[in-house]
Write a structure and sequence with these properties.
The complex is a heterotrimer of chains A (241), B (289) and C (321). Chain A is α/β, with parallel strands linked by helices. Chain A contains nine helices and ten strands. Chain A is 37% helix and 26% strand. Chain B has 289 residues and is mainly α. Chain B is built from eleven helices and two strands. Classes of the chains: A alpha/beta (241), B mainly alpha (289), C mainly alpha (321). Chains in contact: A-C, B-C. Chains B and C meet through helix 3, helix 4, helix 9 and helix 11 of B and helix 5, helix 11 and helix 13 of C. The complex binds adenosine-5'-triphosphate and magnesium ion.
C-alpha cells in the first residue's frame, strides 16, 4: 500500500533545473531515505511535496488525494508534515508554546493542545526545556524541537530534512531511536540525510538523486556500492561520511 | 481636450519627473544597499530646500550654485544618521527598523519648524520667471535647469557607482553583505557612504525644487510618499528604474490635472502605487530583493 | 502571578478614585494617557502580536470619528451606535486592505507602504467630500448628554477612556492566551514555519487586522466627541499613525502591559513638554525630544521599558520569568 506517490515531478528556478522527472512511492509504514550530493535538489523536492514551492509538472498523491495546488497549511492538515533543514523555531516563545502551535492543528482547546504538546515534548526528551524560551536552546535541542513541532501536528507522513546534521554520534544514535519509535507508531517517513550512519540504521530503501534526477535506488547496502552513486558524490565532493 | 494645454502639462510633467527621479534614486540606493526604507527621505529633501534657501537669503547665492553645498550638508547628515543609528538596527526585526527612521523624520521636520517657523517661504531667484516659448507651449527656464541638473546628478551617481573604487565596494556590499565583509571591505563605512549618497541626492533634489515651489516644514511626508511611489514603480533597489519611474509619475500626475482637481493628483499616485505593488511588486523594471 | 494581578487591581482602584482629587487639566492628561494606551493596544494586535507592521492606523481612527459624527449630524443617531457603525466599516476596510496585502504576499516594508497608502488615499478622499466638510473638517455642536456622547467637564471622559483602556487590554489579554492569539504569535515569529504546522496564516492575519481595525475605530468616535473637531489631517494623517505606534514600541511590543506603560511614560511627557516649549516659543521642540527618545529606546532598550520594570519588580511579585 502506497501512502505517498510522486509522478514525474519537475521544478525549475529560472534556467536551472532543480528537479526533473522524479517518480517514487513511499509505502505505508516505510522509512525511505532521499540522498544525493549538495545541491542535488533534495530540499526542493520536499518544498514541492509540502506546498512551499509550486512544481511545474508532476503529480503528488497522498492517500489517494492529489496535493496539486494546495497550500502548505492544507497539506499539513491532510497529514503530511515537514521539518526545515535550517531549523525554524519560534524564537521568542517557550518551547512548549512552540509545540502547541503544531498541536493546535488537531486540538481546538488550549488545555488539550497543551496536554498533547507536553506528551510530545516528553517523548522527544525535551520536557525539562518546556518553559525555556526556544531562542535559548543549543542546536541539538533545536533539531529535536523542530521534529517535535512537526510531530505535534499528528502527521501520517513525516518529511525530515537533515535532522541529524551537526549532531555528535551519541546524539545521532538517540535521534535514530526516536525516529524508529515514531515510525513504529504508524508514521511513514521520508528522510533527507547526509549522515550515512542514520541512513543505514533507519532506511529500508534509499533513493539517490543528482542534478534533480533519480540515479539509483535500492537497499542501503546496494546503493552504497553503486558506481554511479560514488561517482556522483566524488564529482561534487562528499560532505560527511 | 485642449491640445496645447496637454502639451504644456506633458512638458511640465517630464521636467518635474526628473526631480522625482533624483530623490527616488537616493531612496532606492539606500534600500538596495542596506535593505531599509528611509522614512525620513522627504524630510531630508526639505532640509535641502531650507539649506539652499538660507544660503540664498544670507549670501545671495543662487540655489543652482549652492547645490553642491546643500547636497554636501545632507550627505553629512545621512552619513551621521547611518553611523549612529542605522548601522545598529540592520539586524533588528522589521518593526524595530521602521520606527527609528520614522522618528528621524519627525526630528528633522520639527527642527525645521523650530529654525524656520511654520510659514511657507518662496524665494524669488533671478530665473524664477524666465520662460522659453516652445511652439504653443512655454518652458520655464528654472524647471528646465532643474531637470537638466537632476539628470546630470543621477548620471554622475551612476558613473560613480560603476567606475569608482568606492562605488564598486558599495555594489559589492549591496550584493552580499557577508561576502563583502569577508573580502575585507569595511561594510559599516561603506554603508555610511551609501546612505550619505542617497541622502545627498535627495538634498540636491530639494535644492533644485526650491525655485519651483515654496518651502515649509511639513512638506516632507508628501515627498517621502512620492519617492515611495517612484521606487515601487521602478523596482526597489533599481536605480535606473527609479529615474524612469520618476518621469512616469511626473507625467501621470501632471496630465491627471486635466481631468481631476490638482489636489487629487496625489491620490492618483497612491492608487498607482497600490496597483503596482499588487500586480508587479518587483516594479516595472525589476527590483533587487 | 497572583501578586501581579493584585498589584494591577490596586492600581486600577487608585485610577478609579483619582478624579476625586485631580483638576480638569490633570484629568485631561489622564484621558490622553488612556486614549493612547487603548490605541496602542489596538495596533498591538496586528503588529505586536501578528507581526504585520501598520503605519497607517489613523485610517481606522478617522473612519470611527467621521462615521459616527456624520450619522449623528445627518440622522441624529447617537454616537454610541455610530461607534458600532464606524467599527463595522473600519473592519470591512481593514479586511479589504488585509486581503490585498496578505493574498498578494505583501510583507515587511511593502505591507508598511500599503498601509500608509491606504490611509493617505482615505485622507485625500475625505478632503474632497463636501458632506463631511472637505478640507476644513467638521466642528461638533456642543449638546451635552449621554445620548450625544458629550459631557461637561472631564470626569465622564476620564471614566469612559479608562473603560476603553481596561476593557481593551483585557480583551487583548484573553486573545493572547487563546488558540487564535497563539497562532497569531506563531505567524509573527515565522510565517513559513507556522504554515508548515498547518496554521492558515491568511485566515489569522485577517482576523488580526479585523480585530485591530474594529478596536481602533472605536477610539476614533471617542476622540471626535472629546475634541469636538475633526479634520482629515488630524484624524487620517500620518502624524497620528506615528503617534499611536510609539507607545507600544516604547513600552514593549506584543505585550499587554507594554502599550499601557508606554503611554504612562510618553503621554504626560509629550503633553507637559508641548505646553512648556510652546510657552517658550519653541513649537515642535517636544516632538524632537519625542523622536530622540524613540530612537534611544529602540537602540538601547530593544524590548521596551516593560522588561526592566518586570525585572525590578520580580522579587516583589514572585514572577516566574
Ligand atoms: N529558491 C531558489 N531559487 C533559485 N535556486 C534555488 C532555490 N532553491 C534552491 N535552488 C537551487 O536548486 C538546486 C537544488 O537545491 P536544494 O536546496 O534542493 O539542494 P539540496 O539537495 O537540498 O542540497 P543540500 O544537501 O546542500 O541541502 C541548487 O542548485 C540550489 O542552488
Ligand atoms: Mg537541502
Amino acid at each position: 500500500m502506497n501512502i505517498l506517490s510522486v509522478q514525474d515531478l519537475g521544478k525549475n528556478f529560472g534556467g536551472l533545473t532543480a528537479v526533473k522527472d522524479l517518480s517514487f512511492k513511499l509505502k505505508q509504514g516505510e522509512i525511505l531515505a532521499l540522498i544525493g550530493p549538495n545541491g542535488a535538489g533534495k530540499t526542493t523536492v520536499f518544498a514541492c511535496l509540502s506546498g512551499f514551492l509550486r512544481a511545474e509538472q508532476g503529480q503528488v498523491i497522498l492517500e489517494g488525494q492529489s496535493l496539486w495546488g494546495l497550500s502548505p497549511h492544507q497539506i499539513c492538515a491532510l497529514g503530511l508534515a515537514r521539518t526545515f533543514q535550517i531549523v525554524r523555531p519560534f524564537l521568542n516563545i517557550s518551547v512548549l508554546d512552540n509545540v502547541m502551535v503544531g498541536a493546535f492543528l488537531r486540538q481546538k482547546s488550549v488545555a488539550k493542545a497543551r496536554e498533547a504538546a507536553l506528551k510530545v515534548l516528553d517523548f522527544m526528551g525535551l520536557a525539562r526545556q518546556a518553559h525555556k524560551e526556544a531562542g535559548g536552546l543549543p542546536l541539538p535541542q533545536r533539531k529535536r524541537l523542530e521534529l517535535a513541532k512537526a510531530l505535534a501536528t499528528g502527521p501520517r507522513v513525516l518529511l525530515l530534512d537533515e535532522v541529524m546534521a551537526g549532531l555528535n554520534p551519541t546524539e545521532v544514535d538517540e535521534l535514530i531511536a526516536l525516529i524508529r519509535d515514531i515510525n513504529r507508531q504508524g508514521v511513514s517517513i521520508l528522510l533527507i540525510e547526509h549522515v550515512m550512519r542514520g541512513v543505514m540504521a533507519l532506511a529500508q530503501r534509499v533513493l539517490v538523486i543528482n542534478y534533480g534526477q533519480l540515479i539509483a535506488q535500492g537497499t542501503p547496502a546496494e546503493v552504497v556500492g553503486n558506481q554511479e552513486v560514488i561517482a556522483a558524490y566524488l564529482g561534487r565532493g562528499l560532505k560527511h561520511a | 481636450m485642449n491640445l496645447a494645454l496637454a502639451l504644456q502639462l506633458l512638458i511640465q510633467g517630464i521636467l518635474l519627473g526628473g526631480i522625482y527621479g533624483l530623490t527616488a534614486v537616493g531612496l532606492s540606493l539606500i534600500f538596495g544597499v542596506m535593505g531599509v526604507i528611509n522614512f525620513a527621505h522627504g524630510q531630508m529633501m526639505v532640509m535641502g530646500m531650507y539649506i539652499s534657501y538660507w544660503i540664498l537669503v544670507l549670501l545671495g547665492l543662487d540655489p543652482y550654485l549652492s547645490l553642491p553645498l546643500a547636497a554636501g550638508a545632507i550627505f553629512i547628515l545621512g552619513y551621521v544618521i547611518q553611523s549612529t543609528v542605522v548601522n545598529r538596527i540592520l539586524d533588528f526585526p522589521e518593526a524595530m527598523q521602521v520606527l527609528p527612521l520614522v522618528a528621524m523624520g519627525l526630528i528633522l521636520e520639527n527642527l525645521a519648524l523650530l529654525f524656520w517657523g511654520p510659514d511657507h517661504r518662496s524665494p524669488s531667484t533671478a530665473l524664477s520667471l524666465a520662460a522659453i516659448p516652445l511652439g504653443s507651449a512655454t518652458v520655464d527656464v528654472s524647471r528646465l535647469i532643474a531637470f537638466a541638473l537632476a539628470i546630470a546628478f543621477t548620471v554622475a551617481l551612476f558613473l560613480f557607482l560603476k567606475k569608482s573604487a568606492i562605488g564598486t565596494r558599495i555594489r559589492a556590499a549591496a550584493d552580499n553583505r557577508l561576502g563583502a565583509q569577508l573580502v575585507g571591505i569595511k561594510v559599516d563605512r561603506i554603508n555610511n557612504i551609501a546612505f550619505g549618497l542617497g541622502a545627498a541626492t535627495t538634498g540636491a533634489a530639494g535644492a533644485l525644487l526650491l525655485p519651483l515651489m515654496p518651502v515649509s516644514p511639513h512638506l516632507g511626508h508628501d515627498f517621502t510618499t512620492t519617492a515611495f511611489v517612484v521606487v515601487i514603480l521602478g523596482g526597489m533597489g533599481n536605480l535606473l528604474g527609479a529615474l524612469v519611474g520618476g518621469l512616469i509619475l511626473g507625467v501621470t500626475e501632471s496630465l491627471a490635472t486635466l481631468v481631476l482637481p490638482a489636489t487629487l493628483k496625489q491620490m492618483i499616485s497612491f492608487g498607482l502605487l497600490v496597483v503596482i505593488m499588487l500586480i508587479r511588486p518587483q516594479g516595472l523594471f525589476g527590483g533587487r530583493r | 502571578m497572583r501578586r501581579l494581578y493584585l498589584l494591577l487591581g490596586l492600581l486600577l482602584l487608585v485610577l478609579l478614585l483619582l478624579p476625586l482629587v485631580l483638576d480638569k487639566y490633570a484629568l485631561g492628561i489622564f484621558v490622553m494617557i488612556f486614549f493612547y494606551a487603548y490605541l496602542g493596544q489596538s495596533w498591538n494586535v496586528l503588529t505586536g502580536y501578528t507581526g504585520h507592521i501598520s503605519l497607517g492606523h489613523a485610517l481606522y481612527v478617522g473612519i470611527g470619528a467621521y462615521v459616527s459624527t456624520f450619522l449623528a449630524q445627518k440622522f441624529g443617531l447617537s454616537p454610541w451606535l455610530g461607534m458600532l457603525a464606524g467599527g463595522l466599516l473600519a473592519t470591512a476596510v481593514g479586511l479589504g486592505l488585509g486581503f490585498l496585502g496578505f493574498r498578494f504576499g505583501l510583507r515587511g516594508v511593502y505591507f508598511v507602504i500599503l498601509t500608509i497608502s491606504c490611509a493617505e488615499i482615505a485622507r485625500l478622499a475625505v478632503s474632497h467630500i463636501d458632506a463631511v466638510g472637505s478640507f476644513s473638517g467638521i466642528f461638533l455642536d456642543f449638546n451635552p448628554g449621554f445620548y450625544n456622547f458629550q459631557f461637561r467637564g472631564n470626569v465622564p471622559y476620564y471614566y469612559i477612556s479608562l473603560g476603553f483602556m481596561v476593557l481593551g487590554s483585557l480583551a487583548v489579554h484573553l486573545l493572547a492566551r487563546s488558540r487564535t492569539g497563539r497562532l497569531m504569535v506563531a505567524i509573527r515569529e515565522d510565517e513559513q514555519a507556522a504554515l508548515a504546522l498547518g496554521v492558515n496564516s491568511f485566515k489569522y492575519s485577517m482576523t488580526a487586522i479585523g480585530i485591530s481595525a474594529f478596536m481602533t475605530s472605536l477610539a476614533g468616535t471617542f476622540y471626535a466627541n472629546y475634541v469636538y473637531y475633526l479634520s482629515p489631517n488630524s484624524m487620517f494623517g500620518m502624524g497620528l499613525s506615528i503617534d499611536l505606534i510609539l507607545r507600544p514600541i516604547i513600552g514593549g511590543l506584543g505585550t499587554v502591559l507594554g502599550p499601557i506603560i508606554g503611554s504612562f511614560v510618553l503621554t504626560p511627557l509629550s503633553e507637559v513638554s508641548r505646553a512648556y516649549f510652546a510657552k517658550g516659543g519653541l513649537e515642535g521642540m517636544h516632538l524632537v525630544l519625542y523622536g530622540v527618545l524613540a530612537i534611544l529606546v529602540v537602540l538601547f532598550m530593544r524590548q521596551g521599558i516593560l522588561v526592566y520594570i518586570k525585572r525590578a519588580l520580580k522579587p516583589l511579585l514572585k514572577l516566574e520569568d
